[in-house]
Amino acid sequence: MKLRPNCREVTELVLLAQEKPLSLGERVAVRMHMLICKACPRFLKQVQLMRQASERWRHYSEE
User: Fold this and answer.
1) Extents of the domains making up the chain
2) Are the C-beta atoms of residues 19 and 13 closer than 8 Å to each other?
3) How many angstroms from the chain centroid is the CA of residue 26?
4) Separation between Cα atoms, residue 51 and residue 59, nearest integer Å
5) How far from 37 is each of 15, 33, 51, 52, CA to CA, in Å?
6) Mean per-residue pLDDT for 9-31?
7) CA distance 55 to 2
8) In angstroms, rounded to a whole number, what is the distance separating the alpha carbons of residues 57 and 59?
9) Rounded to an integer, what is the distance from CA 61 to the centroid of its chain?
């Protein structure tokens, strides 16, 4: 993993992190990128919001 990934690579890692833990190098690269980018933190928040919403919907549909 590159130390300074581009936005496309970071979005791939953010989505991959939903399925499996990232390596230390990947986590560091993502955090460093998030410090200098305005769009990627917004994408991360959107992914987290969608995950929370789908979990709530799953629980609601089970009732």
Assistant:
1) 7-62
2) no
3) 11
4) 13
5) 17, 6, 22, 24
6) 96
7) 33
8) 5
9) 26
pLDDT in tens, 33-60: 999 999 999 999 999 999 999 988 887 7
- Within 13 Å, how many C-alpha atoms sit on residue 23's CB side? 5
The pTM assigned to this predicted structure is: 0.81
- pLDDT at residue 61, as a whole number: 73
Entry field: residues in the chain: 63
13 close to 30: Cβ distance less than 8 angstroms: yes
Sequence letter at residue 20: K
d(CA 63, CA 55): 13
- Phi and psi at 6, nearest 5°, equal -85, 175
**For range 12-26, the mean pLDDT:** 96
